[in-house]
Structure formats: structure tokens, C-alpha cells
């Protein structure tokens, strides 16, 4: 059993739809011994209906969703946790950081062709693959002043999770890292 670090921040696993946020986020939380929250579960029904119909969300649609995720982050305090959230724009990340200034972002990054192929193979999700291009258009990469790491999505989910763990601040890594 891997020792759980004492100073695990809340980690946001971010990226476009199909980048592996849910899978890697769940594995990362398991490895760190902290709770995991799926951002899709925070969407109000109107957002899910809109995306299911093939329409991208606007900032007004996203506001209650980001507020709900920020509420979960705030409740975590300094106990750590992992939440998946696209967090495509800087202003969305800034909104989440208002809940916890120590938030750490893991940006799952890969070429559009790879992500499109993964998204096409995915079942049981409300996000149609036709909205992927709008997500890439909206994506604002992490800036040097943002606490986070960019992680390649090449390889399998365990390999990506290992890279994510390596990208965490040293104080947040499990003992064997």
C-alpha cells in the first residue's frame, strides 16, 4: 500500500472532452487516497439537454456548474481531492481558484485526432463528438503563473496517471514517487 501524502491539494484534471479526465481523475484519486468528483455530475439538467442536442454551452450556462464544482472544492478544505473539469478557459480556472488558492491543475493534452478517436469510441455520454472542435477553439492552455502540469495522453490510462503523479508538487506525491 502506498503511503498517502499529508499535503495533497485539490487537483483539477482538465482538458477537452474525450481526453480521459474521468478515467485518469478516478485513478489519480485512488492512488492518492482522496475523494474523486466527476464534473459532469454537477451540470444542471438544462446543460445536459443543451449539449445532448449538439449545442455548446455559453458562459451563462457554465456559471452554476462552475459554482457547484467550486463548492465541492471549498468543502474539501485542505483534505485533498480530485475533480475532473474541462476548465478550458483561464477565467473558469480563476473561478475555481477562488474556492482554493492552492488548487493544482493537471491538463490532459493530446492531438485532436487522438481525442476524436477516443470520443467516437465512447458510449453513454451526453457530449457529442461534433462539439469537440468548439472545445479546442475555447481551450486556453495553462499559463506560467498557474499551478499545474501538462500531461500527454499518449499511452494507456495507467501510464498517463503515472505521468500525472510525477507532475504533482513533490509534497503531494505518494511516498514511492
3D structure, described in words:
This protein has 177 residues and is an alpha/beta fold. 42% of the residues lie in helices and 13% in strands. The protein is built from 7 helices and 5 strands. It has helices at 21-32, 45-52, 59-76, 90-97, 112-121, 132-138, 157-167, and strands spanning 10-14, 36-38, 81-84, 104-109, 148-152. The chain has a 5-stranded parallel β-sheet with strand order 2-3-1-4-5, with helices on both faces. Helix 1 (21-32) crosses helix 7 (157-167). The longest helix is centred in the middle third of the chain and has 18 residues, at 59-76. The relative contact order is 0.24. The model has no long low-confidence stretch (mean pLDDT 87).
Residue fraction in strands: 5-15%
The SSE string, one letter per element, is EHEHHEHEHHEH
| Principal-axis shape | globular
* Spatial arrangement of strands, main beta sheet: 2-3-1-4-5
Major beta-sheet overview: 5 strands, parallel
Judged by helices, strands and strand pairing, the structural class is alpha/beta
The end-to-end span amounts to 13 Å
Helix content: 40-55%
Average residue-wise pLDDT: 87
Number of helices: 7
Keywords:
alpha/beta; 177 residues; 13% strand; single chain; 42% helix; five-stranded parallel sheet
Short characterization:
The chain is of the alpha/beta class and about 180 residues long. The chain contains seven helices and five strands; from the N terminus they run βαβααβαβααβα. It has helices at about 20-30, 45-50, 60-75, 90-95, 110-120, 130-140, 155-165; strands at about 10-15, 35-40, 80-85, 105-110, 150.
